[in-house]
Design goal:
The complex is a heterodimer. Chain A contains no helices and 11 strands. In chain A, the strands form 2 sheets. In chain A, strands 2, 4, 5, 6, 9, 10 and 11 form a 7-stranded mixed β-sheet that branches. In chain A, strands 1-3-8-7 form a 4-stranded antiparallel β-sheet, with no helix packed on it. Chain A is globular, with a radius of gyration of 13 Å. The termini of chain A are far apart. Chain B is built from no helices and 12 strands. The radius of gyration of chain B is 14 Å and the shape is globular. Chain B is mostly beta strands. In chain B, strands 2, 5, 6, 10, 11 and 12 form a 6-stranded mixed β-sheet that branches. Chain B has a 4-stranded antiparallel β-sheet with strand order 3-9-8-7, with no helix packed on it. In chain B, strand 8 and strand 9 form a beta hairpin. The interface between A and B is medium-sized, with 28 and 24 residues.
Amino acid sequence: DVKVTQSSRYLVKRTGEKVFLECVQDMDHENMFWYRQDPGLGLRLIYFSYDVKMKEKGDIPEGYSVSREKKERFSLILESASTNQTSMYLCASSLNRYEQYFGPGTRLTVT
Amino acid sequence: AQKITQTQPGMFVQEKEAVTLDCTYDTSDQSYGLFWYKQPSSGEMIFLIYQGSYDEQNATEGRYSLNFQKARKSANLVISASQLGDSAMYFCAMREGSGYSTLTFGKGTMLLVSP
């Protein structure tokens, strides 16, 4: 079974802090994705990556950056957290153009 | 215009009944894929079913089937014999084109199954 893990289920940070959200997959998937989920808005793609050291902007990249130094790990970075970045963050991975496998999510609160 | 539209914010169904969750999509690509995911209260997204635009038959996976009507651009999820554990948020998603594998998600439908 594919396993996607995220470093924290719940996280509370202060405005202006630098925040790292880590995601690791164990199935040698090429593709990895970061989404945020907000009530009434569904999932929105922040960044994705098709290979090590490669990244592409999604629909809402502002205020975020990513890092993929190893194939199995994809990190989302909030350079200076703001209250409007309070959300559920979901990481996913996929081998091909079919289904994406999701991690359990990180609920981030910025105060 | 929204690429994926789920018009039902919430649906109620009794246990053992069938339920249809609506999804319409908008794309000009000939090659695309449609997905349904389930998100229980625990938060994890669970892949349910996939339909490719060139697939001639409707996809089925156990109690889940996808009613694919290409001309109407609809991809409704049908859950037969609902169970209490089916209570969850359901998302329809689309992959466009034959290149990148990014998905566009709808806003979701909350399904509540009552005894």
